[in-house]
């Protein structure tokens, strides 16, 4: 039961962060491109790399992985919103832009995870 509470508490924090990031990005850059979803997925990838690297380096507990990795970052990042954003762009006739968004999202998030892992190694 403690594990479930950690995931739920982390998820609440992560989803609030995703909502606030989305609003801030829309206010800053406009609603015509899914900047909020892209931002949370790239930042989330970086944070996941940092977290996994730090937990591996320090022998971090399962509780930290559940709270921060599954909960916070699971709530903060979003694949379903990414898919909906890309589909909406295609429906609006912006297929090339949707392809670019998909490539930047997927490749960027993977690169961000590696960047986070590298940062932990450098900090060691």
Helix-strand sequence:
HHHHH
The global form is globular
Distance between the termini: 34 Å
- Which ranges are low-confidence, i.e. pLDDT below 50, for 5 or more consecutive residues? none
Mean pLDDT equals 95
Strand fraction equals under 5%
Structural class: mainly alpha
What is the number of domains?
1
Q: Supply Rg.
A: 16 Å
Number of helices: 5
> How helix-rich are the residues, as a percent range?
over 70%
- The strand count comes to 0
Biggest sheet record: none
Q: Brief description of this entry?
A:
The protein is built from five helices and no strands. By secondary structure, the protein is mostly helical. α1 runs parallel beside α3, α2 packs antiparallel against α3 and α4 runs antiparallel to α5 (95-123).
Key terms:
mainly alpha; 5 helices; globular; 124 residues
Walkthrough of the structure:
By secondary structure, the protein is an all-alpha fold. It has one domain (2-123). 88% of the residues lie in helices and 0% in strands. The chain has helices at 2-29, 35-58, 62-76, 79-91, 95-123. Helix 1 (2-29) runs parallel beside helix 3 and helix 2 packs antiparallel against helix 3 (62-76). The radius of gyration is 16 Å and the shape is globular. The model has no long low-confidence stretch (mean pLDDT 95).
